[in-house]
Amino acid sequence: MTRRPSWRRRWLAALTLMTLAGSSLADEPLPRWSLQLPADAPVQFIGVASLDEDGMAGTPMMYPAPNAGGLVVAILTHSLLVDSARRAQREKLLAAANAVIANNPKLFEKQLWSEFGLGEPIHVVQCKDDASEAGMVATRLLAHKFENRTRFADYAVLYRGNHQARLIEEALREHKIPYAISGGQSFFDRAEIKDVLAYLRLLVNPDDDPAFIRAVTTPKRGIGNVTLERLGSHAGERHVSLFAACREVSFAERVPAAQREGLAEFAGFVERMAWRAVREPAGALLQEMLAAIQYEHWLYDSEEPRPAESKWKNVQDLVAWITRKAEADGKNLIELAQTIALITLLEGREGEEEPDVVRLSTLHASKGLEYPHVFLIGCEEGILPHQESIDTGMVEEERRLMYVGITRAQRSLTISHCVKRKRAGEW
Hints:
48% of the residues lie in helices and 13% in strands. It is of the alpha/beta class. It is elongated.
C-alpha cells in the first residue's frame, strides 16, 4: 500500500506550483486555488505569487476556508516570497512610486527596482482649469507621438473618477485622436448623444443606413418596423441606400400614404438642414434642428423626469461643445460632423486584435495594466486624494491609487493638477 504524502509535503508542492504559475494565478478567483487539506492541518495557505501588498489593497488578509474543518486561509503576498520586485518601469518612475507608498503603514517592506535605466523625468504640469488640462493632454500627446514615432495605443490617460473623462474626450476629439474608455461609459456612447449624432451623420452622408434608421425612428414619427422592412427590401432590390430608396416613386406604391408622407417629410427635412449646414452658424442651426424634431419633449414623454433632465443636459453639453468648436476653428456643422464621424469610425474599427487608440481609464480599472506613456490627471486635493478620504482620514487608499497610477507607466509619466476646477457646473 502506497503511503499518502503528509499535508505538509502536499502544501510545499502546491506552493511551488503556484509560485511558478506567476501572473496567471492573480487572475483566478480565490476559491479555485483553495487547498483542501486534511483536518490535521492547522492552517491552510494560499500563495499569491504575482501580487504585492499594495496590489491587494482592499483584500482581507484572512479568509475562512470552506469545507476544511474551520481552518483559516492566510494569503501570503509576494513580499513574503522575495525581498524586492523587478518591474518593467524605469527607475525614476519606481522611485516616485516607492516614495508615495512609503508613507503608508505596511505589513511587509519592499523596494521596487528596474533594470531598464533611469528613464525620463516625471513631468508635473499645473493648469489653470480642467479645460486647459484636457487641452494640454491632447497637444502633448500628439507632440510626443510625432517626436517618438509611437502609436496611439502606447498612451493612457488615467483619472480618479469617471466624471473627469468628459473634457478629455472632447479634447481628444477636437484633435482627431481616437480613444477607448475602460471602466466607464464614453460621453459619446450615451443613447441621447448617439441620437443627435445620427442626424449629423446623415447631413454628411445621406447613404449612412444605420444613421438613417436611428434618426427616422427617434423621435417616433409614425414610421414603424413594417414600413422600414419594406423600405429595406426595396433598397436591396434597387441596390441603393435607404435614404435614396424612400425618394423613389416606385417605393411610394408599396406603402400606405401616411407612412409615405412621413418618410418624404423626413427626407426633405434632412436635405434642408444639409443645405443650411454649410451656410449658417453650427450652434444655432443645431439648436433649431433639435427644436424642430422636438427632441426635448420626446425625452420627457418617454423618460422619468430626472433621467430626462440628465439626458437633455448631456445634449445641451454636446451643443455647447460643437458651438465652441465651430467658433474657435471657423468650421460649419458639416465639417464638424465629418470630424466626429471620422473619430467614431476609428474608435469602432473591428477585426483588429489591438485597436490603435488611446486608453482612458479610472485608476481602479487600470490595475494590472501597463502602458509605455501615461498621463495622470487631477492630482489635487479633493480629487486625488478624494475629499471624502481626506475628511475621514483614509488617505492610505488614495496613496495606493497614486501608487497604482505611477506604476502603470513604463517609460514616461505626466502628472497634472489644476488651479481651479468646475464641479457640478460651478468653480
